[in-house]
């Protein structure tokens, strides 16, 4: 949190005497409502003193509090009540069995003041608008038939990614700067740009959009936290931050608008056709996310309908690019790190890849091939169980007071779930700390696990219930496709003097390796 403690005290302590006789314990009775237990509350500040850490230390502090208070933990963050859930059965009861009761998103008083009120799939309240946006994405982007239309972009990104990895080790001359995960991030972002705007842009254009997107995301997650406290006051004290945020949003909008406009003209003229015959060199895609947004009409409530505004289009495109870049590239890094650390598992996966290519007569693994490779899916599932990119999901909120685990969760409370803890539950998994894809094969303790959590929750890397990530099919396809082809093209070995650490974690936009993956990447067929 950027706001320093002296400034926070100067803003809030003059008000503390007003609440001096407020509850000392969150776990006590709040009127007739029995709230979940939690640590003692400091007037006005709430429990900020208990979780004043940064990054991964916040999660560690929350886990220590769970160990003391139980699977339901209530924290006061200023005047806001937040509840975290660490038990998978409670999570299933709340998210699946009573899905609609906890399908809303918490509201933030500062959103309107900051101009962040453009609705997206992830931020919309549970209702007709959310259903419209989600249904559009699932049917028009994430369905198997639609995903096949993006095959040219996947092939082009895979070709570029393998070239960059060859250059990294000086194969073919030269070298590649940056970490392996940064190479993965660029590849995933380039693929999503093509899927979003229907055009495979050059590297410079992709990197410019990525920089603008990341700058805004980083600024929003670090510099705008101050506006959660007394927004009527802080928006006046920190006007410079508002101006900077608006400038960054305009920069991004100026990049998006020509791409959206070009697609509007193309779709309006005729159905777009690929410009090249070769799948790997096709530049214009026959279908993209923007195409679907151009067809959406919103009901304004007075009986009239309208198309999406530019701001709404930009918000939805930003969500699309943000949602699938860091999560997928982070998961890909963790999986490849585990394959480096476990060469026997990598060898078994490579045998599966070779067998599949021999049966198809192809020199690579295509999208339809991954469905025939159960061990590949087991490797990806084990990566998501052992190293979920997010240790929490996006926060939920009940639209009305609800009961959970014998406690009352008041309406509007921010509720979150410790995803990583559920995948490491010793009551659900044998040797949970071990990376063992065989657990998802016949006879393993993970055989038949449903990652949607519909039957029961044993792991929930994409969330569960009504607000489960709509991009689940997109993410799993991308992980299976790239893991298979990276193992097909290269043998991934430990680099001398660079031990791969699969236990160290740090928090960025996702939970990444504390020590980024370094590996010796050897093309298959080379010594």
UniProtKB/TrEMBL annotation:
This is Cytochrome P450. SUPFAM superfamilies: Cytochrome P450. The keyword Transmembrane helix applies. GO terms for cellular component: membrane. Residues 1-24 form the signal peptide. Belongs to the cytochrome P450 family. It is found in: Membrane. Heme binds at residue 469. Gene3D superfamilies: Cytochrome P450. The chain crosses the membrane at residues 216-238. Its cofactor is heme. The gene is LOC101754345. It is a single-pass membrane protein.
């Amino acid at each position: 949190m950027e706001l320093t403690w002296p400034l926070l005290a100067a803003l809030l302590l003059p008000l503390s005497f007003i609440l001096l006789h407020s509850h000392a314990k969150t776990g006590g009775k709040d009127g007739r409502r029995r709230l979940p237990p939690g640590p003692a509350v400091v007037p006005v500040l709430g429990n900020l003193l208990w979780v004043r850490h940064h990054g991964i230390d916040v999660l560690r502090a929350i886990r220590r509090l769970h160990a003391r208070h139980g699977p339901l933990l209530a924290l006061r963050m200023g005047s806001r009540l937040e509840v975290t859930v660490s038990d998978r059965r409670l999570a299933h009861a709340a998210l699946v069995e009573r899905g609609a009761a906890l399908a809303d998103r918490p509201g933030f008083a500062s959103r309107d003041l900051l101009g962040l009120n453009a609705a997206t799939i992830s931020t919309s309240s549970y209702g007709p608008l959310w259903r419209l946006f989600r249904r559009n994405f699932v049917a028009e982007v994430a369905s198997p038939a639609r995903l096949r239309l993006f095959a040219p972009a996947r092939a082009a990104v895979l070709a570029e990614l393998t070239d960059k990895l060859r250059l990294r080790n000086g194969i073919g001359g030269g070298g590649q700067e940056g970490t392996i995960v940064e190479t993965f991030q660029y590849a995933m972002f380039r693929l999503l740009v093509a899927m979003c705007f229907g055009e495979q842009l050059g590297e410079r254009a992709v990197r410019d959009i990525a920089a603008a997107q990341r700058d805004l995301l980083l600024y929003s997650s670090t510099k705008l936290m101050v506006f959660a406290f007394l927004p009527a006051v802080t928006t006046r004290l920190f006007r410079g931050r508002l101006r900077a945020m608006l400038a960054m949003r305009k920069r991004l909008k100026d990049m998006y608008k020509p791409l959206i406009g070009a697609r509007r003209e193309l779709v309006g003229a005729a159905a777009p056709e690929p410009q090249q015959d070769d799948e790997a060199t096709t530049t214009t895609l026959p279908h993209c996310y923007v195409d679907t947004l151009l067809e959406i009409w919103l009901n304004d409530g007075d009986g009239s309908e309208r198309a999406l505004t530019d701001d709404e289009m930009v918000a939805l495109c930003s969500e699309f690019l943000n949602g699938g870049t860091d999560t997928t590239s982070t998961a890909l890094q963790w999986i490849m790190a585990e394959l480096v650390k476990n060469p026997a598992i990598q060898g078994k996966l490579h045998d599966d890849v070779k067998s599949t290519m021999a049966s198809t007569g192809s020199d690579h693994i295509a999208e339809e091939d991954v469905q025939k490779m159960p061990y590949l899916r087991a490797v990806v599932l084990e990566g998501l169980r052992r190293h979920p990119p997010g240790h929490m999901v996006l926060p939920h909120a009940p639209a009305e007071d609800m009961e959970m685990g014998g406690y009352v969760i008041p309406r509007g409370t921010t509720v979150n779930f410790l995803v990583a803890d559920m995948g490491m539950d010793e009551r659900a998994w044998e040797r949970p700390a071990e990376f063992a894809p065989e657990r998802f094969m016949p006879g393993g303790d993970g055989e038949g696990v449903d990652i949607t959590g519909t039957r029961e929750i044993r792991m929930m890397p994409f969330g569960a219930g009504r607000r489960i990530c709509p991009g689940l099919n997109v993410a799993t396809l991308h992980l299976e496709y790239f893991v298979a082809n990276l193992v097909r093209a290269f043998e991934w070995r430990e680099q001398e003097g660079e031990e791969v650490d699969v236990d160290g974690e740090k928090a960025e936009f996702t939970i990444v390796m504390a020590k980024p993956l370094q590996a010796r990447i050897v093309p298959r067929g080379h010594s």
